[in-house]
Each structure stands twice: as C-alpha cells, then as structure tokens.
Specification:
Elements lengths: L2 H22 L13 H13 L5 H11 L10 H10 L1 H15 L8 E10 L15 E5 L4 E12 L5 E3 L2 E3 L8 H4 L5 E5 L8 H9 L1 E5 L2 H12 L6 H7 L2
Parallel strand pairs: 6-7
Antiparallel strand pairs: 1-3, 2-3, 3-4, 3-5
Helix pairs in contact: 1-2, 1-5, 5-9
Length: 243
C-alpha cells in the first residue's frame, strides 16, 4: 500500500473513532475553531510516527512539504504543536477504544518490557523544575545509558499493538515493576531476565494467572525492531477496526 492510501485509511479510522469519543466527552468548551481539524492533527501524528518523523519540526516539515494537498490549512507550526499537545486525552481515549474493539487486550500472550524516558539531558537534571518530585535517576543496561526521567512500561500484543503503558519510576529495578505491567492481564508474558524473580513468579501465577517466561534480550530487541520497521502499515489499523 502506498503512503497516500495509508494516510487516507488512517484518517477514515481516526474520524470514526473520534466521533465515538466525542459522543462521550466535551472536547472543546469555547473559543475559535482551529484551522486544522482534530482528526487531521491526529492523523498526521500517527502517520508521522510510522514514517519515522518523531520530532515536531520533522513532522510538520514533512507534511507541509509533501501533503499540503491533503492538509491545506497546515500553515503554522506552533499552532499545530499546541493543538497536538492539547489533544493528549483524546488520543488516549482513541487508543483505548481501538484496543477494546480489536480484542488485542484479551490475547493470552503479551510481551512486557521497559524503555528509558528521559525528560532532560543528564547534566540539566539538577535544574529540573517540572518533574522535581516525580522524576529520578536511572540506568538502561541495554542502551548503556544513564538518564534522568522515568521508565516507560510496555505490554505488547502479538500483532504489535500496545495494550498497556504505565509510567514507572526510573531508579527501581524492572522486577519491581512487574505487577504494574501485568495489571489486568492473565496469561503468558515473555520478558527478559530482568523480570525473573523466583519469589514473585509463583505468586503472580497463583494470584493473577500470569506466567513470566524468559526470552533472550537479542530476540526481544529483534522482534520489537521488526514491528517498528515493518512495511505493512495497515495491519494494526485493520485489526483495530475489525477489518
């Protein structure tokens, strides 16, 4: 599938789920309507992530240069970034709706892992004011990285859909975050050896029906990288919509 068709497909799915969210919540209470619709902004964010444009500037420049015919009102980058940031609750609600409708949250095998989530460079940590009481120092052995911020926990279904993503303390070892990662789940959780605990594993199995199975770190990184670089853009969205 070419990129034009992919963008149109994503836009149609976003519009469908956005309307369902809008029926439940007040999204805007007043003020002037933005030049871009919320559906357009969310579509560009999703497609930009698939196209590996993770910075706001790169995302804006790409769609402004190549897809002005799709998004003619895309003119001002600060307005685009501000609108995108203000939609974080809407995006979370759409994600939750997609997970529920796809049935991926009910799959019996889901991989768990954590990623470093720095909030600033290591040298600026002492001057941090935004997350002073929340962020902490941590170390990522896989990336050989010392950082200041949080850990992002991930639970991923077999098709690569994120079904759970708690924000975790950076200093604590991965094994101490196992309960948060398997919350609301029962089944098999492949994970690296950092999540193995001879005392905790029997308790998880008895109380919650969760079995932690060790997999090689290299295999896990290869699997996640394969999901991130796959060419079949529409697989996750087709599964979400029940297509």
């Amino acid at each position: 599938m070419d990129r034009d068709t992919f963008i149109i497909t994503v836009y149609c799915l976003v519009v469908e789920h956005y309307q369902l969210v809008k029926e439940k919540f007040f999204i805007r209470r007043g003020g002037f309507a933005p030049a871009l619709t919320d559906e357009e902004v969310i579509t560009m964010e999703i497609c930009g992530a698939y196209f590996k444009h993770h910075l706001d500037k790169d995302l804006f420049d790409y769609f402004h240069s190549h897809y002005r015919h799709f998004f003619p009102n895309l003119r001002d980058r600060p307005s685009f970034v501000r609108q995108s940031a203000n939609l974080w609750q809407v995006k979370a609600a759409i994600w939750q709706l997609m997970v529920e409708r796809s049935g991926q949250a009910e799959t019996r095998v889901q991989v768990i892992d954590t990623l470093p989530l720095p909030v600033c460079t290591y040298t600026r940590a002492r001057r941090d004011r935004c997350f002073k009481t929340l962020a902490d120092y941590g170390h990522c052995a896989a990336k050989k990285l010392d950082y200041y911020g949080f850990k992002l926990g991930l639970r991923v279904s077999p098709i690569g859909m994120i079904t759970h993503f708690p924000l975790l303390n950076a200093r604590a070892h991965d094994v101490n975050h196992t309960n948060a990662l398997v919350e609301g789940f029962a089944g098999l959780c492949p994970a690296d050896k950092g999540f193995l605990d001879p005392w905790r594993q029997p308790l998880l199995l008895d109380r919650y029906g969760v079995k932690i199975q060790e997999i090689g770190l290299l295999w896990l990184q290869t699997w996640l990288a394969g999901l991130a670089h796959r060419d079949d853009y529409t697989l996750s969205f087709a599964q979400c919509s029940g297509a």
